[in-house]
Amino acid sequence: xxxxxxxxxxxxxxxxxxxxxxxxxxxxxxxxxxxxxxxxxxxxxxxxxxxxxxxxxxxxxxxxxxxxxxxxxxxxxxxxxxxxxxxxxxxxxxxxxxxxxxxxxxxxxxxxxxxxxxxxxxxxxxxxxxxxxxxxxxxxxxxxxxxxxxxxxxxxxxxxxxxxxxxxxxxxxxxxxxxxxxxxxxxxxxxxxxxxxxxxxxxxxxxxxxxxxxxxxxxxxxxxxxxxxxxxxxxxxxxxxxxxxxxxxxxxxxxxxxxxxxxxxxxxxxxxxxxxxxxxxxxxxxxxxxxxxxxxxx
Length: 298
What we know:
By secondary structure, this protein is an alpha+beta fold. 18% of the residues lie in helices and 35% in strands. The model is unreliable at 1-11 (pLDDT under 50).
């Protein structure tokens, strides 16, 4: 790829691999021979240096052998700021974001101003009016956490056509009502959708197979903090399957919840690992568990 974007920085630049454990500033001075210490620190201050794909601003950041440093030749051109959406990775092919609960991923309605899809479309068009975003998957409005979009049609096709192989791990954290009898289990059901757009478990001949592994992390018996890993990515899969086993996600009245302790759906997309459509390398992203979740179960 000719361009790299780390954080919000989209530019041409210089990429180097760290050969031995060191500290950032001496390494930059070596890479940028002839530049003064002040000018190198200015690169850091303007977000033009990234370490392993993430912007760094501290000159004393420790380096390990094998770390990748990217030095941009341009200052940040376009900033993205929205209270419900944060870009955590972007390159020529994909954008990975951390979405707050309450924001729609995508809408089927003609007006889409209040969706992650719309906001990101507007953002990429600031660089070039021809740019656009391509949908890969969705998170429910009430679900927070990680999701990604493609930035071009080939990347979308590569990921969509091989979704099960490309996604190496999708992990969610949820607070569910009650305490499941088994601390760990694999739930296998068959899902269909009724005329009211509710997904439900049904007989094999009437639905699509859905596989979910769960582990109870902590419980106070009223609520349990659960780690859930999807083997299949069906619409509303977690919500329907947790209702099916008698422990609906807290705050999810549509799928059987009797309580709403935090005035939100207690479901968070915590980890997203996938094979990059161009580099073929595994990308790993994790999002912190919302404090509301851990505060509820002490």
